[in-house]
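Appendix B. Extra example for self-study. Work through it before the problem class; the solution is given directly after the inputs so you can check yourself.
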Amino acid sequence: GAGVSQSPRYKVAKRGQDVALRCDPISGHVSLFWYQQALGQGPEFLTYFQNEAQLDKSGLPSDRFFAERPEGSVSTLKIQRTQQEDSAVYLCASSLGTGVRNEQFFGPGTRLTVL
Amino acid sequence: LAKTTQPISMDSYEGQEVNITCSHNNIATNDYITWYQQFPSQGPRFIIQGYKTKVTNEVASLFIPADRKSSTLSLPRVSLSDTAVYYCLVGDFYNAGNMLTFGGGTRLMVKP
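Solution. C-alpha cells for the complete assembly:
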C-alpha cells in the first residue's frame, strides 16, 4: 500500500541556496509532522500541521525554515539561505488522527547535504 | 515532556530474547509509552504502545511496572534483521498536536 513518500531522497546544496523538500502523506491523514535528524541522533520535532493549519512550529530552528500544507495534503519544507549546520535527514510523518495515541507513519526522509 | 533514558547500545545473538529498558522517572499521569524502531536510511516505525501492565503484539511485548517510571521492550528470538535503533518515547495523549520526542535511542546489534 502507499505509504508516506518524500522527494527528493537526496539533495546537495551549496551554502546560501534555497531548498524545498516535499512530503506526500498517506491519503486522508489529518496530522503531518516534520522532523530533523542529525547523524547519529534521534529525530527532533520541527513543525506540525492539522489539515492545512500549522498548529505548532516551535521546533523550527530559525526563520530560514518555513513549512506549508496549503490544501491539507502535500507539504513542503523550505529552507532559505542554507547553512552547513542544516545538513541532516528531514523526515515527514503523518497520522490518521490527532494526539500521541495515533501511530505516526514516517517517510524515508530527505538527506540534505550543504557544502 | 518526560525525559527518557535508555542504554546507548546492546549486543545480542540470533535466537535470543532481548530486553531493552527505558527509564522515565517524571512520567505524567496522561503520558503513554511508545516504542519505535529505525533501520538505516529509513524513517522510524511504530512497534508498540502501552499505558500500564503488559501489552503484547505480533512483534514485541511491553512491560510497564505499577509506578510507570520505567518500561521494558521485549523482543523474542531476535534475528539479524532486528538490528536497528530502538527509541522509547512518552507523550500526553490529551495533547492533540503532540509531536514525538525522541532521545538517542538504543542501537541493537544482533550477531549470527
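Self-check: The radius of gyration of chain A is 13 Å. If your reasoning did not lead you there, revisit section 3.
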